[in-house]
């Protein structure tokens, strides 16, 4: 049956920043959404607030910083889609308290990162970055000195999640020995083995590659102390987040030639756009492969991410489902049942559901179905009622103490 949303699809505004792939626009249009504003750039400050002040849905990638202050200035915002893996650029707690679920694409670009890292392992072990730089200057260094096969060498993976595991599998196919360190006990794939500590990994690996999220606990995870524990001449790869490595300490370790080379894709401060200047203490080292945060930037990954995150925003908009939201109670919902559906987001204080049910009962409103999930801070309840009672139901629902947001979906 045709679903009639209480707000027509052509009244809902989607703002997609940072050059999100056209597959996202295609998916939204195919579902009947017409108000889609796109921008190739990340926005900051007043420009960001101006762009999203009347948006119902917002799509970003890794650069747009959604602070509590910014989110508060987007009163209509119903959900955020991060068209990438990392969600550290969003104040997730603030979004949750404002009743805004945040979705991401947890694995659409993992293969792209894994392939790049694998290529970098080989490039670093062969000393290609410095040979390439020399040759661009007219030099010629045909020599086997400092150049090694990866077969039989040890790859140390820090963070054995979606990306780390794929790299482990691919590296073993090249004949590498794989060890990893993770704060969780993990199912090991292939012949990989989990070592007891970060120190043990650093002491045993010929190449260390980082695949942890940005968290308070991963800031400067690799600093001077950790670099000193790496084998002399070993290589470091970081395609996770810039804050994970102390760049000055890395520059120092490279200067002293304790570290043989590095491949760095992410930086503590990244240029705001392709027309901005890149500055880093690492630019002076020819044995460092520098890339502009393109680990996940392939045609395949971006097209898949566009479809995947757009589908999550569409499902939340059409149906209310929060499955796979990263900051919100996850409620899985059946498709449209021919009744009216009401959404209620509330502070998770005792008695909210009792209040809802008491109010509905007193108003003579029959609840056909009710779905509830809570986390420590917020609750999300979805209620299906007979369509003739939806107005009365909404006014009861919005009067419940602790309400953050309430609306009729259809
Ligand atoms: N350069 C790029 O373009 C891209 C970068 N990324 C970054 O890569 C990160 C990792 O991605 P996934 O593998 O998908 O994440 P994931 O969540 O699947 O895996 C992360 C792993 O790190 C582990 N971990 C967390 N803290 C740790 C610590 N202190 N020490 C050791 N292990 C720790 C977790 O237990 C988990 O197993 C993302 O959070 C994102 O920031 C992701 C995609 C593209
Ligand atoms: O997926 C991620 O977390 C990334 O870092 C990729 O970010 P991007 O979409 O290329 O800005």
UniProtKB/TrEMBL annotation:
Gene3D superfamilies associated with the record: 3.30.70.260, NAD(P)-binding Rossmann-like Domain (3.40.50.720)
Enzyme Commission number: 1.1.1.399, 1.1.1.95
Membrane-crossing residue ranges in chain numbering: none
Domain ACT: start-end pairs: 341-410
Stored CDD domains: ACT_3PGDH, PGDH_3
PANTHER family: D-ISOMER SPECIFIC 2-HYDROXYACID DEHYDROGENASE FAMILY PROTEIN (AFU_ORTHOLOGUE AFUA_6G10090)
UniProt-listed Pfam families: 2-Hacid_dh (PF00389), 2-Hacid_dh_C (PF02826), ACT_AHAS_ss (PF22629)
An MF annotation (GO) of this entry: phosphoglycerate dehydrogenase activity
Described purpose of this protein according to its UniProt entry: Catalyzes the reversible oxidation of 3-phospho-D-glycerate to 3-phosphonooxypyruvate, the first step of the phosphorylated L-serine biosynthesis pathway. Also catalyzes the reversible oxidation of 2-hydroxyglutarate to 2-oxoglutarate.
Name used for this protein in its record: D-3-phosphoglycerate dehydrogenase
Keywords tagged on the record: Amino-acid biosynthesis, NAD, Oxidoreductase, Serine biosynthesis
Superkingdom of this protein's organism: Bacteria
Catalyzed reactions per annotation: (R)-2-hydroxyglutarate + NAD(+) = 2-oxoglutarate + NADH + H(+); (2R)-3-phosphoglycerate + NAD(+) = 3-phosphooxypyruvate + NADH + H(+)
Protein family: Belongs to the D-isomer specific 2-hydroxyacid dehydrogenase family.
The protein's annotated pathway: Amino-acid biosynthesis; L-serine biosynthesis; L-serine from 3-phospho-D-glycerate: step 1/3
């Amino acid at each position: 049956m045709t679903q009639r949303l209480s707000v027509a699809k052509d009244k809902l505004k989607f703002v997609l920043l940072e050059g999100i792939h056209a597959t996202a626009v295609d998916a939204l249009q195919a579902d009947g959404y017409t108000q889609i504003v796109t921008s190739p750039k990340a926005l900051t400050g007043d420009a960001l607030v101006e762009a999203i002040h009347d948006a119902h849905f917002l799509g970003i990638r890794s650069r747009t910083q959604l602070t509590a202050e910014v989110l508060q200035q987007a009163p209509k915002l119903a959900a955020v889609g991060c068209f990438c893996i990392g969600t550290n650029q969003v104040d997730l707690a603030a979004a949750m308290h404002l009743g805004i679920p945040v979705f991401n694409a947890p694995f659409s670009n993992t293969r792209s990162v894994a392939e790049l890292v694998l290529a970098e392992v080989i490039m670093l072990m062969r000393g290609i970055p410095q040979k390439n730089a020399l040759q661009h200057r007219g030099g010629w260094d045909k020599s086997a000195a400092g150049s090694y096969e990866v077969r039989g060498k040890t790859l140390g993976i820090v963070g054995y999640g979606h990306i780390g595991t794929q790299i482990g599998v691919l590296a073993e196919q090249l004949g590498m020995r794989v060890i990893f360190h993770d704060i969780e006990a993990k199912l090991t794939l292939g012949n990989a083995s989990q070592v007891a500590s970060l120190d043990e990994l650093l002491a045993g690996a010929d190449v260390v590659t980082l695949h942890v999220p940005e968290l308070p606990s991963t800031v400067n995870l690799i600093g001077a102390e950790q670099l000193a524990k790496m084998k002399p001449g070993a290589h470091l790869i970081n395609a996770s987040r810039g804050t994970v490595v102390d760049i000055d300490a890395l520059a120092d370790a490279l200067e002293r030639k304790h570290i043989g080379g590095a491949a760095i894709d992410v930086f503590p401060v990244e240029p705001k756009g392709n027309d901005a200047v890149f500055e880093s203490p690492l630019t002076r080292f020819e044995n460092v492969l520098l890339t502009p945060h393109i680990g996940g930037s392939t045609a395949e990954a971006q097209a898949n991410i566009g479809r995947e995150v757009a589908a999550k925003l569409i499902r939340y908009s059409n149906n209310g489902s929060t499955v796979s939201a990263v900051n919100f109670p996850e409620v899985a919902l059946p498709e449209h049942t021919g009744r009216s559906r009401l959404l209620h987001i509330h502070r998770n204080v005792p008695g909210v559901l009792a209040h809802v049910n008491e109010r509905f009962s007193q108003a003579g409103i029959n609840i056909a179905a009710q779905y509830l999930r809570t986390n420590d801070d917020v609750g999300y309840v979805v209620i299906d009622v007979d369509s003739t009672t939806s107005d009365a139901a909404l006014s009861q629902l919005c009067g419940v103490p602790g309400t953050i947001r309430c609306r009729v979906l259809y």
